[in-house]
Amino acid sequence: MEPGISPSRRRRGNDCVSAITNARPRLSTQAAADATKPEGNSPNQPLLPIEWMEDVMNSIWTRVVIAAFCAVTLNATIAQAQDKWDSAPWIEGKQFTLKAGYNTVKQYPHGRAIERFVNRVAERTGENFQIQTFPSEQAGNERQMLDAVILGNLDIAKTSTGIISAVVPEFGVFDLPYVFRDLNHMMATVKGKVGQDLAAKLEARNVKILFWMEQGTRSFYTTHKQVLTPNDLKGMKIRTISSPVMVDTINALGATATPMGFGDLYLGLKSGVVDGAENAPDAIWYAKQHEVSKYFTVTNHFRTPVVVVMNKAKFDSLPPEYQEIVMATARETQDWAGTLYSQVSAALMASLKKAGMVIAEADEQAFRKAVEPVYAKHGEKFAAQLKAIREIK
């Protein structure tokens, strides 16, 4: 393969060659025979039918147009795909090998984004900068990986903002219910001043944020009763994680918050220890909890971002050109990941419905109003961040 030509660009070039080739005039068997057989003894009899000559001229024009289009398309593709690192004739640099951990499988949206980031960094450094990945909690759970990054025992990790709030409390603002209007609002927040200020506080703890991603929203699913309004939750035991804000949110909505490990939840739902839980569609689907839950209600009461972070001392020790590559690739990965998680979540929602779950939309405004006591209790310590978040249009 020629240097600098990717398989995808090669396929597009082959498609163009095929299109140009297929634009040649086709001469039927009979027309070919007629074209090469003189009619009578007239020396002026043309050897080619006039119709075929017209076809030749038309096909030549068609091939010229296709060739011009392909030239423009391929040049645009190459210009778009190349950057200053792609076009370098030879890349020499110091070799580095880092380790990155995350808690999902590689095929999961977060895993796909991280693997893409790792591969692109290697490409741009001529394979001199390698990042070994350890998916599926091989490097520990999110809290353990964050601690390892802080101490320098792990170079890169993916973790949720709720975990980070134990280190930088201000990150806890993202745990509040309905803190964002939608995904666009959340991403505008983390890309803007709020996210930058929080990133600076985390860097003071020796942790640098590389890029942010979404992880969908949490909604209620129950075993015996559809939940449409907060009143429907009264008297129900709803499993939650051991987070003070999340516990207070479930209680404010009228249910009885019941902290329980996720691994115990399937049996808890089946046996009736709890009447329901709240999570994203992917968590329900992959844990097969739809087998023991009948109703899913879209409430979107929690929407929290996740981050991929790096040990700051390790980042600072990289050569400047590698730092530039890491951050440029991180920005591209953040944009590439975009709505990937939401797309997967929507597909799995359809799978849950096909598997027999009854899906309903809640009265979201009623739920938003019901959680106001949570803000009265926890909002004051996040006053500055909440003001800034609410001002983002």
Strand order of the largest sheet: 2-1-3-10-4
What distance lies between the first and last C-alpha atoms, to the nearest angstrom?
Answer: 49 Å
- Give me the secondary-structure category: alpha/beta
Mean pLDDT: 84
* Coarse morphology: globular
Q: Which CATH architecture of the largest domain would you pick?
A: 3-Layer(aba) Sandwich
Superfamily (CATH H level) name of the largest domain = Bacterial extracellular solute-binding protein, family 7
Percent of sequence in beta strands: 15-25%
The top-level CATH class of the largest domain is: Alpha Beta
3D structure, described in words:
The chain has 393 residues and is α/β, with parallel strands linked by helices. The protein folds into three domains: 1-25 and 47-79; 96-216 and 305-340, 3-Layer(aba) Sandwich (D-Maltodextrin-Binding Protein, domain 2), CATH 3.40.190; 218-302 and 343-391, Bacterial extracellular solute-binding protein, family 7 (D-Maltodextrin-Binding Protein, domain 2, 3-Layer(aba) Sandwich). The protein has helices spanning 7-22, 29-36, 50-81, 109-124, 142-151, 161-164, 183-191, 193-203, 244-252, 262-271, 281-286, 312-316, 320-337, 340-354, 364-370, 372-378, 383-391; strands at residues 96-101, 129-134, 156-160, 207-213, 218-222, 237-240, 256-259, 276-279, 295-302, 306-311, 358-361. The strands form three sheets. Strands 2-1-3-10-4 form a five-stranded mixed β-sheet, sandwiched between helices. Strands 8-5-9-11 form a four-stranded mixed β-sheet, sandwiched between helices. Helix 1 (7-22) runs antiparallel to helix 3 and helix 9 runs antiparallel to helix 16 (372-378). It starts with 6 loop residues before the first helix and ends with a helix.
